[in-house]
Amino acid sequence: MQQKAVTDYCNGGGNIIVSGAFVGTDLWDNPFATEKDKEWAQQTLKYKWRNNNGAVTGHVKSVPSPFLPIQGNYRYYNELNSDSYVVENPDAIEPADKNAFTIFRYSENNLSAGVLYKGETYSTCILGFPIEAVKGQDKRNELIKQITDAFK
Predict the structure, then answer these.
(1) Which H helix or E strand runs over 114?
(2) Does the pTM exceed 0.70?
(3) CATH number of the domain encompassing residue 36
């Protein structure tokens, strides 16, 4: 039911950002996930899972893509702290469409950390790390602005 709502929203011209440490794992490496779940992620959100051990250092970097607003480096909380929960094993994800591109990679190993798709009807951005765990409100705002500017 939720997948249908997201699909309907996207097909109606809505853009969507999905972020989280388990955006791929929940649909691929989960005993309750089905082949239809994987197909939905690839066909609607335009990404696929690579692994659930994307990185440990908490650093992501933008990489060249057709989306010029996407630039810079970001850090997310990867150790115990008083400001945020800890992101220990973020997902590595890959593009699943010819109009989807890796926009971020984990700095330590170059695994894909973020995918942006821009289609004729809608756009998606899927991040294998949680936006809310990015260090600094100004950096979180910058990241979201870059993504929404890339959707234009």
Answers:
(1) strand 112-118
(2) yes
(3) 3.40.50.880
